[in-house]
Amino acid sequence: MFIDTLIIGNGFAGRSVASALQGDSLIVERGEKFNIFERRQRFMQMDKTNRHYALIRSSYESKHAFNIPEQMPKDCASEYILVDGGCSNHWGGLSFRLSQAVLDGESTDFPWPFSYKTLLPFYSRAETLLRISADPRDPEGRNPRAEIKGSDKWHGALGKYFPGAYIGAQAHNLSADNSQGQGQCLGAGDCELCPMDAKTRSLHVQVNTQVLNGMMVDRLRFEGDKAVEAICVTEDGPLSIRFNRVVVAAHGVESLKLLWKSNLPAATPSELLGHHYQDHAVAELACVLPGVNIPFLQVNTAAQIVIPELSGEHDGIEYTTLALMTPPKEAARAGALDIEKVNAWDVEGALKDMSSIRSLYVLLEIPPEWDVSLSYSAGKVSMDTAGYHQSKIRYNGVIESIYQKMEALGVRPIRSAEQRHYMNAMGTHHLIGMLSMGNGPRAVVDADFKLKGTSNVRVAGSSLFPRCGSRNPTVTVVATSLMLAEKLNSESGEPLIKRAG
Questions:
Q1: Contact criterion met (CB below 8 Å) for 279 and 471
Q2: Are 406 and 412 in contact (CB under 8 A)?
Q3: Cβ neighbours of residue 459 closer than 8 Å, sequence gap 6 or more
Q4: How far is Cα 53 from Cα 71, in angstroms, rounded to an integer?
Q5: pTM of the model
């Protein structure tokens, strides 16, 4: 079999490249096709004692023997799945752009090779593909498919303390249009396995490219600096595909594995493969907004509120604070109860305080300088987390700075309810970095998305982010994949594609 452009992976990265690519191409995807509603039914029948395990590990198990994800160590909570469409099947739909500070930062070793301004038109196209819905007060100038209704209630409630707060954009279909095969969001929650299939998954992105499922690319074979053949594993035995050029768009860990197994050119900086894993660490906080009546769940989709007043950068660590729309946990309620009011028989006042509790979720950057890294030996992937554990104490300074910001705004922290999860483990299923792109000394992929030392191997996906900050990666994965497609079209002499999908 011979193809002009081979794309490895049918997730958001590979599929977004294919949606904008001109010429002859083929997507190979190791995961089998499946029915999302059947998976939902399987999930609903499971013991939910450990919902996290049931959702990711079991609901999306592949039938193929070669589709077993790598087991991350206990101090890394991130997992991933290997079915058709990849991890977009269980993402929640929160649609962040990376911050301008991250994209335009002047880090010596980990700079992005292009600016926020350069990426901006691709962000716009990516958000069209994702069919995002947004808050009318979203500060990033988006062009959403629909408006998140109920946002005015939250602005009114939080505005006294957090005037910049807005509901984070969501890749949830809030329109009546199902032309991409999506249902309509009913705000029912469980977005990872949406009962309406209203959350945008990669399989909703329309492509004219053939997809071959159940085909795992084990390695690439090089002749000099050119990759010429993909050696594949299938249920029916081995298969090889020859090509002119290849886009490696598998999941971050799996992209690494197939490159580790390949006879890479000597000029490829193989010693850097797997370094600078980033992902995110998290903390949960709570606070009381005196005099505020929180409008719990009053919005027409599952969402979170971005609080710029409690976000920023501290000690070189970017952090983003989200307010959850769900009722607070028991520890937050207990911490908010004013015993003095109760003892003074002001029970009504004490109960009013209960309606002012705000649960917060803090996403913390794992800086690439900490060099959490993956390696491959004897058929096994290992992770070195020493750099994380040596540096995680710095997150305490971030949390204290958030508390100081709260108090300066008249907000009362509930310190007894905090959960500093980062002290025990990291990971939010964002396996980012490890094939860092750019012009810095630690880059493995150049500014044109080309694996260094090769003439025809491109990389797409979050694995190439030199720095991700504290933002979820999916929108940037789609945006950079569209940018890559334009570069490939330009090289081929094809007209640059301007459509959104």
A1: no
A2: yes
A3: 247, 248, 249, 255, 435, 437, 445, 449, 450, 451
A4: 13
A5: 0.95
